[in-house]
Write a structure and sequence with these properties.
Chain A: One of its GO terms (molecular function) is transferase activity. Chain A: Keywords: Glutamine amidotransferase, Transferase. The complex is a heterodimer of chains A (291) and B (228). In chain A, a hairpin with a 2-residue loop joins strand 4 and strand 5. Chain A is globular. The longest helix of chain A is centred in the last third of the chain and has 14 residues. With 291 residues, chain A is an alpha+beta fold. A 7-stranded antiparallel beta sheet of chain A has the order 7-2-8-1-13-12-14, with helices on one face. In chain A, strands 4-5-3-6 form a 4-stranded antiparallel beta sheet. A 4-stranded antiparallel beta sheet of chain A has the order 9-10-11-15, covered by helices on one side. Chain A has 7 helices and 15 strands. Chain A has 2 domains: 214 residues, Aminohydrolase, N-terminal nucleophile (Ntn) domain (Glutamine Phosphoribosylpyrophosphate, subunit 1, domain 1), CATH 3.60.20.10; 65 residues, YebC, transcriptional regulation domain (Alpha-Beta Plaits, 2-Layer Sandwich). By secondary structure, chain B is mainly β. Chain B folds into 2 domains: 105 residues; 101 residues, no CATH class. Chain B starts with a strand and ends in a 15-residue tail after the last strand. The chains are: A alpha+beta (291), B mainly beta (228).
Chain lengths: 291, 228
């Protein structure tokens, strides 16, 4: 099954509540996916700085060990490094050579990405989602079908700067897509089919496509069942396969656009009683961009 | 009138109270508050009662209904009225996928739109959708009637048997073995009475087209293999 949630704020006064709203949505979707959970939050960024979300153990001294103008914030098994954007290559090299046990799971100006095995409410609490603020965020509760129940297999998947994707469904041609994408420089960290979908979109965006055209193209190149929710630095998108195999419901108000696999996930949102609630159409690309 | 507040009462309690109603009970009109998109609300009813749900409902609302009238003052999730035998289900908002799936009887009225696979494998139910319906609707529909005041998505009536489909708006495409058919007086009369039952009295009957089975796929014939 899997559960997906997403919240894209139009009204900046709600930004301090992004994490708590998303945490409630995620917990409600436990029944659809109790194996693991994850979320990405687009928070504040600093001019000329980059955030790297790193996952692993013994994280406390990493920022200091890298040295220079590197700051770190540890949240349970994840560490968000804030580095000068010009230092990205250097920091990646340092991590690869000094701490090969760590894994970079997200990078960008504003994205922070957290995922773990376990019940969604526990995962949200371990990372302190409730207190996070931001402009938009997406989350996923996983019922594993295509690969093992591991943290690697948890969503979201991020394969490009400030990009992430969550997926409900299963892709049937992910092996051949992976063989097509790897020579083009798209690297994959797991065997998960959803990571291939994320990589496909990253490749399209690298090639100069807009988020909307990348998603439109995916309809002819991806085979299988999917409901995707995608985040970029400024955008939020939704796409379902042409037979809308997997469920989806959306709510839009003047303050936000919200996505849930079921309406239940949306009931705690402010003003939901007056929201326009609708089901996204199959094979139709929905994109919202921040001003 | 019994009022059940799902903010304090569980869905299971609600359903067991409804199932436990004595024959000829005077508690014939129920109101359910704070449904919050819960699944399986008012399922398996078998009594001539009315249940009003004050908000959005989740999956399989009013499934397997017999005799009862269930009114949802909001949207419903997947499978509203699935396998209904009799009675009435009235959704005032939109319905998600597979509305009225496999239902044998009764009337399902959707004031808004229904999404994919509306009336899939319907077996005698009458469905009136005042908005539009999604793709693969009435797939393998066996009997009953589907009336759509708006448009229909792709592959309407794919592999249809004897169900009758009336659509006022555009049909994106017809599925295998589904064809447009002549509207005769008996069909106009049936359509008029179904619209009246659904509370629509101002629709122009002449604006509807009728669709149904060409009956070429009833028995396997190798010349038709490509059509399946």
């Amino acid at each position: 099954m899997c559960g997906i949630v997403g919240l894209f704020l139009k009204d900046s006064s709600l930004e301090p509540q992004l994490g708590s709203l998303l945490a409630d949505m995620l917990e409600t979707m436990t029944g659809r996916g109790p194996d693991s959970a994850g979320f990405a939050v687009y928070g504040s960024g600093g001019a000329g700085r980059l955030k790297l979300t790193v996952r692993g153990q013994a994280l406390d001294s990493v920022a200091a060990d890298i040295g220079g103008d590197v700051r770190g914030e540890v949240r349970d098994t994840h560490l968000v490094l804030s580095i000068p954007a010009t230092e990205e290559a250097h920091v990646r090299e340092w991590l690869a050579s000094h701490r090969p046990d760590l894994r970079i799971i997200g990078a960008g100006e504003r994205i922070e990405l957290y995922k773990e095995v376990g019940l969604p409410a526990d995962v949200a609490r371990r990372f302190g989602l409730e207190k996070m603020s931001g402009t938009h965020g997406i989350g996923h509760t996983r019922m594993a079908t295509e690969s093992a129940v591991t943290t690697d297999g948890a969503h979201p998947f991020s394969t490009g700067a400030d990009q992430c994707l969550v997926h409900n469904g299963s892709l049937s041609n992910h092996r051949s897509l992976r063989r097509m994408l790897e020579p083009k420089g798209i690297a994959f960290a797991t065997d998960n089919d959803s990571e291939v979908a994320a990589g496909y979109l990253s490749w399209k965006l690298q090639e100069g496509a807009t988020l909307a055209t990348a998603l439109q193209d995916s309809l002819s190149d991806l085979d299988g069942f999917f409901t995707f929710v995608i985040g970029t630095e400024s955008g939020f998108a939704v796409l379902r396969d042409p037979i809308s195999c997997k469920p989806a419901v959306m709510a839009e108000t003047d303050q936000y656009v919200a996505f849930g696999s079921e309406y239940r996930a949306l009931v705690g949102l402010p003003g939901i009683e007056k929201a326009r609630v609708f089901e996204p159409e199959p094979a139709r690309v929905y994109v919202w961009e921040r001003n | 009138m019994p009022v059940v507040d799902l903010a304090v009462t569980s869905r299971r309690d609600l359903n067991s109270r409804l199932h436990g109603l004595a024959r000829n009970s005077n508690e014939t009109h129920w109101r359910v508050e704070n449904p919050q998109g819960e699944h399986s609300l008012a399922v398996g009813l078998d009594a001539p009662i009315t249940v009003e749900i004050a908000g959005h409902a989740g999956y399989y609302c009013a499934g397997m209904n017999q005799q009862a009238t269930v009114v949802v003052e909001g949207n419903v999730g997947v499978g509203v009225g699935e396998n209904m035998m009799s009675g009435t289900v009235h959704v005032k908002g939109d319905a998600s996928q597979s509305a009225g799936a496999t239902a044998h009887g009764g009337l399902l009225v959707i004031d808004g739109n229904a999404s994919a696979r509306c009336g899939i494998s319907m077996k005698g139910i009458n469905i009136v959708v005042k908005g539009s319906i999604g793709p693969m609707s009435a797939f393998m529909a066996q009997s009953g009637t589907l009336v759509v005041l708006g448009d229909a998505g792709d592959a309407l009536g794919d592999s249809i048997y004897e169900a009758r489909l009336f659509v006022r708006g555009a049909v994106k495409s017809l599925g295998a073995d589904c064809i447009e058919k002549e509207m005769r007086d008996e069909h106009r009369e049936e359509l008029r009475s179904l619209l009246a039952a659904a509370g629509v009295d101002d629709a122009d009957i002449a604006a509807f087209k009728r669709y149904g089975s060409a009956r070429t796929l009833y028995n396997f014939h190798v010349d038709n293999a490509a059509a399946y």
